[in-house]
Amino acid sequence: MNLVIFRISDFVLRIYLDMSKRTKIILIVILILVIGGVFIYKNNSKVVFRSFEECAKAGNIILESYPRMCRGSDGTLFVEKVTPIPTPMGDKSNLIRVSNPKVDEIISSPFLIEGEARGNWFFEGSFSGELLDEGGKRISTFIAEAQGEWMTTEFVPFKSTLEFKNPWTQKGTLIFHKDNPSDKRELDDELRVPVKFATTSTSH
Fold it and tell me: Using only C-alpha atoms, what is the Rg of the chain?
């Protein structure tokens, strides 16, 4: 095998040496043009995506989320466009419903939170929430877990156990945050439920 390669190399070298100077220059120019053309082709052949559909069609990674997201080769995320569910201004009942606690219900720790939300309120089967006192200070946080298949536009039950220390105020607010893994703030949403505390701390 090595002998064959040597003979071929020797043959090519002899041909090159027998070429005129002008022919050699032309050959070198051709090689430079070919190499440059290959380089330009590779750079121009890089696919640029403008939408989720183009990214997905190219076989890129689809993230488990709702709306679905496609990650391009350069890390760019493309969010699938979905038809928004019509909701009256200020009313979240068509997106999320909290059955426990009720509005202004007295709560104590630990407290079982229950309700249902559309699948697009979750990400990877959960969403976060927090408990604030009357002055807006955060008392505690919680993670609500889906109790069924969340990759849907239908309502999915959720549960969470909230543990907290009673604040100095008698009233507070439970906030249910829509989980938004993208950097598009227009997709943020939340539901606020006013609550009352079973007892109020007293000074010592």
Answer: 32
3-state SS, the chain, equals: CHHHHHHHHHHHHHHHHHCCHHHHHHHHHHHHHHHHHHHHHHHHCCCCCCCHHHHHHCCCEEECCCCCEEECCCCCEEECCCCCCCCCCCCCCCCEEEEECCCCEEECCCEEEEEEEEHHHCECCEEEEEEEECCCCEEEEEEEEECCCCCCCCEEEEEEEECCCCCCCCEEEEEEECCCCCCCHHHCCEEEEEEEECCCCCCC
What's the CA gap between 204 and 86, in Å, rounded? 52
Amino acid at 138: R
**For 157-167, what is each residue's pLDDT tens digit?**
999 999 999 88
Whole-angstrom Cα distance, residue 45 to residue 50?
A: 15
Token pair recorded at residue 167:
């604040």
Is the pTM higher than 0.70? The answer reads no
Cβ atoms within 10 Å, residue 64:
12
Tens digit of each residue's pLDDT (9 = 90 or more) over 69-114: 888 877 788 888 776 554 444 678 899 999 999 999 999 999 999 9
